Amino acid sequence: MTDFQLYFELGRAHIMDITAYDHILFVMALCTIYQVAEWKKVLILVTAFTIGHSLTLALVTLDLIAVNSAVVEFLIPVTILITALGNIRKRNVDFHQRASRTNYFFALFFGLIHGLGFSNYLKALLGTDTDIIGQLFAFNVGLEVGQVLIVLIFMGIAAVLHFFFHIARRDWILAVSSAIAGIAVMLMIETKFW
User: Fold this and answer.
1) What is the spatial distance between Cα 28 and Cα 3, in angstroms, rounded to a whole number?
2) What tens digit of pLDDT does each residue of 104-134 get?
3) 95: phi then psi, degrees, rounded to nearest 5
4) Domain span including residue 99
5) What is the DSSP string of 130-162?
6) Which residues contact 161 (CB under 8 A, 6 or more apart)?
7) 3-state secondary structure at position 26
């Protein structure tokens, strides 16, 4: 297995790890308000998240910034909660260009926080290896592929439920976002930040 394959797989596994489901919840929260026909917007959205995630991973791994793990572990579910509550607030509103741009900004900004959550582990994993840039690139490509797979599965389920069970978009957004918000609150309570 090449270095690229190894770090690609680490990135893909990181985002799809069911035991560390905070990233999955966040990606689901990002996608809840969109329909399959809006796949280009969703792709831009998860790519914005990956860019933010990649930036802070690189900054910490290259020793350009340091992070307080307890604060980051608390902030990650906060980002999930804010995204879910934003979905609930917008559930009756048809999206237009300005709302989409706002979502892209939040995905990018919240990606910065999520990247901090995994950065110390990745930094320890990389150690003093000389090809750190190549490994970071491979990791982030794997991360993006994993996110796209999550989006495909999640939006596929949503499409099936809409088509076969005629679940209204408004009800879907309310139900999924409320569940995600509840889980995010539980994750916030469980952190050692308190």
Assistant:
1) 30
2) 888 999 999 999 987 877 777 776 666 788 8
3) -75, 145
4) 3-190
5) S-HHHHHHHHHHHHHHHHHHHHHHHHHHHHHHH
6) 167, 172
7) helix
Tell me whether residue 194 is exposed, middle or buried, using C-beta atoms within 10 angstroms of its C-beta: 0 to 12, 13 to 18, 19 or more: exposed
From CA 86, how far away is CA 59, in angstroms rounded? 29
For helices 69-90 and 97-126, angle between their N-to-C axes, nearest 10 degrees? 160
pLDDT tens-place string over residues 5-62: 998 998 899 888 888 789 899 999 999 999 889 989 999 999 999 899 889 988 988 8
Backbone angles phi, psi at 92, to 5 degrees: -95, 0
Contacts for 172 with CB less than 8 Å, ≥ 6 apart: 32, 158, 161, 162
In this prediction the pTM is 0.90
Q: Is the dihedral of CA 56, 59, 62, 66 positive or negative?
A: negative
- DSSP class of residue 194 equals -
Total number of domains in the chain: 1
CA-CA-CA-CA torsion for 125, 130, 132, 137, nearest 10 degrees?
-120
